[in-house]
Design goal:
Length: 513
């Protein structure tokens, strides 16, 4: 065929149409066998054979088909009927052994830590959500919504104004400590006189709020906040006095040390200034030093997000206390006076909301609040906590849970005791003793009772440290100590302390009325 220009036009190739599929009685076994062989030679069959070989213990299995095996000839069949394109290999025969080597069950002690448990972890999350959802619904059906608008502040809160005045007057003690240091660095007073004046100031700073709380009919929460702030100021005053005393010994007295300090360390050995004192009293740290690492700027967007989260988690804490903890505690009996089973049931019922409250408190204070302060003040060192939730011993927990207090105790109690020739065991005992006294002050003074529950709770950590350390040494790479930590802190210890202090406070109020 030619076009108008005389060029030859090639005819289009003929269209190859698939022959119609036979219907009814047109079924042929030969066509079915050919289709089955094509399906067996596909990737799905290869994956099935590999899975069967792995499950049967034959890790070598039949060889993977090469490209030559998967090619089809002109007739559409595979190149070899007995090759790996079908299930005629020996590995798929009944005579092939299924059990080829010794294997452990997945949950046996030798194999349980060699595999992933993500599915079980997801199951725990689902069960946790379901169980807690049921408890929330049950609580709402039984008590209704208990949170009130006047939970945080009401008309009776105005009677706590003496505590507010006491809190606002606490900065007078750091100013007094600063005056003492100025006189000491100018050699107006001796180092011994400066130490005596610091002892008087720190003692007065902790006694003053105690007297105010005991003399005023204030709420327990208000007294707790005042004692908490007073203890923080006391720790800062001790660090301020101790650090400047050591600086005077190194700079003025020329006291020798074993390892020579670096140039940067020597530059930081300076007399305190009013600016350094004010920054230290506001900074999220308990250890004084003339200068701190600083960040370059304040991230305003990040800061606003943290403040919003802080307000949300503060509200969640109030909701947990009012909606869940208060009804359980009010309707309970004294754990040491009722029946044993009743006490165990109450402690276990209180343990769940107590765990949530404790975790919210940790996140709200140690992460959100301290980071908010650090961001505003551009404070650089923000290691306020470590991975205490993975602690395998009680000792490891106390070294990771509250880093500001841990650094303070190590710097101002533990190391001075060790330098004085005191044994390590006695130094640990002294450290826990100071911590126990402060915990007792924070709790017992606002409650106006002296039962030493908080003191004993801290001192009993010493035998628990020994117990968990022995378990760690005996059962290496296990989490037995971590389980003991979670049990004594969240399941038994804190709920028991809450019940003890609540009923003792209620008994005191009942006797006064």
């Amino acid at each position: 065929m030619e076009d108008s220009n005389g060029a030859e036009i090639k005819a289009p190739p003929p269209v190859q149409r698939r022959p119609p599929r036979p219907r009814g009685g047109g079924f042929t076994p030969e066509g079915f066998v050919a289709a089955l062989r094509r399906r067996l030679s596909s990737g799905a069959a290869v994956a099935a054979r590999a899975s069967f070989a792995a499950d049967s213990g034959d890790e070598s299995g039949p060889p993977e088909p090469s490209s030559s095996h998967s090619r089809r000839d002109s007739s559409g069949d595979t190149s070899s009927a007995g090759g790996p394109g079908d299930f005629t290999a020996f590995s798929f025969r009944a005579a092939a052994p299924v059990h080829r080597k010794a294997k452990e069950s997945p949950l046996s002690s030798d194999a349980i830590f060699k595999q992933s448990h993500a599915g079980l972890f997801n199951l725990c999350i689902v069960v946790l959500v379901a169980v807690n959802g049921r408890l929330i619904i049950e609580n709402l059906m039984k008590y209704g919504l208990l949170i009130r608008a006047g939970f945080w502040f009401n008309s009776t809160s105005l009677r706590d104004w003496p505590l507010l005045m006491c809190c606002l007057s606490l900065p007078a003690f750091p100013l007094g400590a600063f005056s003492v240091e100025q006189l000491a660095f100018r050699n107006v007073i001796t180092d011994a006189v400066a130490t005596c004046l610091h002892i008087i100031l720190t003692t007065a700073e902790i006694v003053y709020p105690v007297l105010v709380i005991l003399m005023c009919d204030s709420a327990v929460v208000s007294g707790f906040l005042l004692m908490f702030i007073a203890c923080i100021v006391w720790l800062k005053l001790v660090s301020f006095a101790h650090t400047n005393h050591d600086i005077r010994q190194l700079t003025i007295s020329g006291k020798k040390v074993d390892n020579a300090p670096s140039t940067d360390d020597m530059d930081s050995l300076q007399a305190p200034t009013l600016g350094s004192l004010v920054y230290f009293m506001m900074a999220p740290t308990l250890c004084y030093q003339p200068s701190y690492p600083r960040t370059e700027n304040v991230r305003k967007g990040w800061l606003i997000r943290q403040i919003i989260l802080y307000l949300i988690f503060t509200g969640i804490q109030g909701f947990i206390i009012e909606q869940y903890i208060n009804p359980i505690v009010v309707n309970s009996q004294h754990p040491l006076k009722g029946g044993l089973l009743n006490a165990i049931e109450t402690v276990l019922r209180l343990s769940l909301p107590n765990v949530y409250l404790w975790l919210c408190m940790f996140y709200c204070f140690f992460h959100l609040w301290l980071n908010i302060l650090a961001e505003i003040l551009r404070f650089g060192d923000r290691e306020f906590y470590k991975d205490w939730w993975n602690a395998k011993t009680i000792d490891e927990y106390w070294r990771k849970w509250n880093m500001p207090v841990h650094k303070w105790i190590v710097r101002h109690i533990y190391f001075p005791c060790m330098r004085s020739g005191i044994s390590k065991e006695v130094a640990v005992f002294v450290s826990f003793f100071v911590s126990a006294v402060l915990h007792e002050l924070v709790v017992a003074v606002p409650c106006r009772i002296l039962k030493f529950w908080a003191f004993l709770g801290i001192m009993l950590q010493i035998p628990l440290i020994t117990l968990t350390s022995c378990l760690k040494n005996k059962f290496r790479d296990t989490m037995a100590g971590n389980m003991i930590f979670w049990f004594f802190f969240c399941i038994y210890g804190q709920p028991m302390c809450v019940l003890l202090y609540y009923h003792d406070v209620m008994n005191r109020i009942g006797k006064t009325e």
